[in-house]
Structures are given as C-alpha cells and as structure tokens.
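Minutes, methods subgroup
Present: GH (chair), OT, SY

1. OT presented the first of two proteins processed in the latest run. Sequence and structure tokens recorded below as shown on screen.
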Amino acid sequence: MLAGTGSDVGKSVLAAALCRIFRQDGYRPAPFKAQNMALNSYATPEGLEIGRAQAVQAEAAGVPCHTDMNPLLLKPQSDHTSQVVLNGRPIGNKDAYDYWRRGTSDIDFRREVCLAFDRLSARYNPIVMEGAGSISEMNLRSTDLVNLPMARHARADVILVGDIDRGGVFASVYGSIALQTEEDRRLIKGIIINKFRGDLRLFDEGRRMLENLCGVPVLGVVPYFTDIHIEEEDSVSLSKKSVQAEQGKVNVAVVMLRHLSNFTDFDALEQDSRLHLFYTNNTEELSRADIIILPGSKSTLDDLRELRRNGCAQAILKAHRRGATVMGICGGYQMMGQEVLDPDHVEGDIERLPGLGLLPTTTTMSGSKRTVQVTCMMGEMGPMQGYEIHMGTTRPLDGAPCSPLLQLSDGREDGYMASIKCMGTYVHGILDNAAFVDFLLEPFAERLAEVDSPYDYQAFKQQQYDLLADHVRRHVDIGRLYQILSHD
C-alpha cells in the first residue's frame, strides 16, 4: 500500500509506476483503492463505474479495469453530499455526516470493500493498493475504510509517501508514523520522498535523519517531473493548467464549471501541437477562443444557472455568432439544448432551466445512470472508442430534424450536430480519437498547414507509462522493495 502524509502527495502516480514496473518484471499486478472521492470516473468493460485513477493504473498494469479495483466511489454533489457508487452502481446520495456515522447505513461498507479486495487478490499478484489523503486523521480512525484498516485486512506492506515540495516533510512523515497505533506502525515498512526539486545530494543527510528519527528505511527520493504526462485523478491539477488564449495556434477553451467532471477528456488535446488548450470562465478569454468546449458536469442544472449568472452563457453565444465552434460533452451537451428538465428533482430543487439554445434538443434528468464503453462511427471515419457515464436522456424537439453526431455499434444514435461548428455528444473520450480531433479542427485547416500532424494518443500513453517506470526505477530502490514484499 502506498499511503500518504496528505492529499496530492503523488500516491496515484506512484501506484501507476509500480503497476508498470511489476508488469515489466513479469508479474500480473492490479491496482486497488477501497474508497475514492472524485468526479473523474470511468466505465469498465462491464458498463460499471470506478474512479479514473484506478482505470489509469490498470492501463499501466496492462489489465482490464474492474469495479473490484475501486469498490466504493464518492462523487461530490455539494459541500455536504455525495453520490455513493458501490461496486460500480449508484446507490443514492448521502450526507457527509451521516455517511461517516456508519451506523446510519444498512450497508456494511467495510465488508463490501474487503470482499472486493479478496476477489481481486485471488486473480492478481501483487496488488498495488492506494490509500486516501492522510493516514493520521485520528478523528476518522474508527470509520476509515481505505488506509491502515484496509492494510491490516490485506496484510499489506505500507510505504508512506511524503511530498517535500509543499514543505514540512520531516514533521509530516514523522508525525504520520508517530500518530499510529503500535500495531499499525509495524505495517509501515518504508518511506518515499516525492516531488524533490534540485540536487538530490542535498538531501542525503536528510534521508539519514529521517531513517534515524522514524526507524523506517527511506526507499527513495523521487524528483519532481513535468515532462511525463499521466492522467490526473483530482481536479486540483486544473489549477496548474493554462487559463488564457495564445497567439499563433488554434485556441480551444474548456469552460471551467463549478462541478466539472471527467476533465481527462481533454488530456489528448493538451499534447496536440496544432492547438492550445486552456480552461476558463473569463468572458474575455472565451471571446478569443476558436473552439469552446462545454465539459461534463456532476450538477448540470446548477452549472447552467451559474453560466447565466457569470456571463459565460452570453459570451459563448456571442463567440459562436462570430464563428467559433461550440461542442458539448455529456452535461455540456445537455446545456447546449433548448431546455433541461428535472421533474423528479434528481439534481435538486430546480425543475426547469432554458438551455443555451444552440441545439434543437430537450433533456430530462432521471435517477438511472448509464455507464458503458462504446464503439462509434462518424461518416467515413473508422471505429472510435469512448464511454458513457450520464444521467438523463436527450432527444430532438418535436419537428426538429434528426441529425445524430455519432452512430454507436449497438445500433443507437448519439448526440446532435447542428453544423460542423455546433455539436454535442454523451461520449467521453471522443477527443482521444485522432480522426475526431481532425474533424473538429477542419474549419481551421488553413492555419494548420505547417503544423505537425497529430500523434497516436494511445501509443503516447503507453510510452508515458514506460517513462514513468524508468523515472521511479532510477530513484527508488526497487530491489529493496521486492525484499520487503517477499518477507513473510
């Protein structure tokens, strides 16, 4: 288990690295995180839902993702409530206080996550487990499902990850260990210092001091990197991305929604040399965009209302009238229609809001969620891959022409295309397909004549996993890690 001194210390990326390393070394690893809290999710081959981080780690391990890798997923809907997804299926919304008071639920979540681990460990070896946040939240110890109580069930060797970039690494590592019970302290077999900047030799003395202070070996000091691209788990990473247009390229603006979900839809575009991708809810920056993308949302109606309040809705319409392309994905597609209806109060108290009016469609929210991997076609393009995770159905208004964007392999039609510069789809991951990106950029072909052609994004991701594994091998004592894992 990779456990952390806090959130965003790099556990997910290190877990992906170890999955790749174990695969390279001839093992059949699989990732596991008992409980995840994220809006970034993914559909498994069975059409069920897990956290995106475990799907990425499974891809690094070279195995299909499965709900047993992330049996419990919490998708925040407000500051106090989350949708609870158990074994890939939503089971309702829970207030945070009631959720953490386990006695208020008729479901034994601890039993469920332990059963998922047991099923997974019967099929794969080793299991690369990931903790959540800090392991020293003492007030949550009795209800913790994901950190050391899970490690005890799995009899896992725990490697504590500390982030030196944020400062205070000695206190956070020592304190995280010192605050554990004697039984749990014995599970912690190593320390990895992550995100180091500068000359590694400057930390040689610090490494020895930490080992003496904690009585636990430091297995490695991993330098901070910016040249390896692994899909991120948390939307905190969006704060590091570009927020404004850039001259000389096709500018693609992703509208920054309050409840933005599945932001990894745009990772492929970030690597495409023909365009510049940025995230914004600034009306002036939206006016500079050649392409505006409305992304997925966990709360479509609330985000639609906010777009009207902050002026972004008007800015998007004005940019489209001036010639900008507007595309919606999932919740963004719903917002582009004439109206969004929620008669059953699936999302909240708002029963109806007018949409942006860019597509002749109407959406009705529903309590059932569709999660499925899809293969789709568009015109003369070859098969493209993606996945659906959405609540609600969208259909053309009475009298509107039928104009689906995509044909799905199961015979269904998806999305709506009003023109080459105005379209929407429920398919996440559509922008990972080079043929579709070429289509999206077609109106700007004259500006792309001298720019490199796009790359194969799937091949690019596999290359990045290998680069990540090489980076971690250079700076973590993998031999000593194997010794720890093989000690009975």
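2. SY then presented the second protein from the same run.
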Amino acid sequence: MKQIILVVSILCSGFYLSAKQVDTVTVQSASMETEIKNVVILPADYETKTDMPALYLLHGYGGNHASWIQLKPDLPDFATKYGVIIVCPDAKNSWYWDSPVNPKIRYETYVSQELVQYVDNHYKTKKDKTGRAVTGLSMGGHGGLWLGIRHQDVFGACGSTSGGVDIRPFPENWEMKNVLGDYSSNQEIWDNHTVMKQLHLIKPGLAIIVDCGTDDFFYEVNEKLHKELLYRNIEHDYISRPGVHNAAYWTNSIEYQLLFFYHYFLKNQ
C-alpha cells in the first residue's frame, strides 16, 4: 500500500478565519491507485477536544471537494457550534459507487474505508460508528444514503438533501451509465445500485434524515422513498418544503441536517 500523503494548506478565501481550520488534505487511495483531495473543517476549539464526531459531507454532480465550503462559507462556524469535524471528499461524478464496469472507480471503498481510516488516524475523532455520519446534496444525497445504509458498521447516521434516491427514472443523465453501463443492457445492475433497493438492509438504530424541495426534479422519487420507509416501519426524519434543486435550498437545508446529526452525536456520547 502506497504511503498516505498529507498536504495541508489553508484555503486562501474570505471564509477562512484564523480561529478555525479549513484544510485541504490529499489522501492516497490504494484501491484506485490515485491521490484524492478532501476538505477537512475543524472546530475553532479543536486543540482542546478529544473523541470528536465526524460528518462526511458529499458534493453533487459536477462538484468537487471544495464545493460545500464554497456553497456554505460559514460551515466552520457550524463545525464549532456543534463540535463536529466536517470532511468533504472529492468523488468526481462517481455517484459514490464502486463501479461494476470500471475497476478504476471505487469511491464507495474510498469514502467508507480509506478516507475514514485516514481521518481517524490523523484527527482526534471518535473511532466508532456512533461518532460518524454521512450526507450530501443531489448525487451526494444518493451517496449519503447509499454509504450509510450499506456500511452501518461505519456510519451510525446518514442523510440526503435533494438526493437522487432512485436513479432508474434518469438512465441518460449525469454520466451514470459511465459507471454502471447502459440501463437497457444492465437493468439488474441499475436496480442493485439504487438506494430504493437497499432499504431491506436497514437495521434498527440507523439515524436517517431526508429532505427535498417540492419543485425539485427529484421530489417524486424522494416522496416514494419516504412512503416506502413508512411502509417498512423504518424510523426517519423527512422534510418537504417549497424549493428547487439549487444552492439556496441546500444552504438552508444543511443547517437542519447539521442539527439532526448534532442531536444524534449528543445522544450517543
């Protein structure tokens, strides 16, 4: 396994405050044999803390590791307010899958194993699933639920905002066929790689939050997810309010999700 390389640099932007840390770290992925950039946001009082929870916050299609801090420049304030380390990986347009057709795309393995191990080894984290949560927007909303449900030994809580929680109605969109193959000839693969087909894996205790704007093109699939979770008697928080698939919605919705995860971490201290 190649040596993990740490590159620390302060993001030179107006959102950086001297009392807080916003780092960019480069992590070597052994599974993909490549280096991946990640933003790590530390609370202002990080040096005085131990056993801190970590929230893995995932970007959407077309985004990268810096998308969330650019979208929500006051994330460091929330990291301090809630005493949480926020980790934003770069996953290109992978949808956070391990591709069944391209062995060079293994972002499920990267986030759920390699990155978590790196963060636990280099930061003062609580090294238990009750100290980890994962969520994101759009493609990252799919990723938050995909990773949270499939790796309940790693993450104790998961979420999605404006998430593509059922990919099958969108077979020609967002480069998904580059990761899964064409839908027409790989329908079983697509079925097996959608969040809607993972619900049977959910065990009691996994904390779940889902939200989506009523005018979002993903609203219908989120409504179906909510109803299916209710049918299966799976506990979850579901928020539906006016909004579309845009930054204005996400900068608001992430504050509700941060509060949700804060209460989860607090309950499991």
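Chair's summary of item 2: Residues 1-19 have pLDDT under 50 and may be disordered.
Next meeting: continue with the remaining queue.
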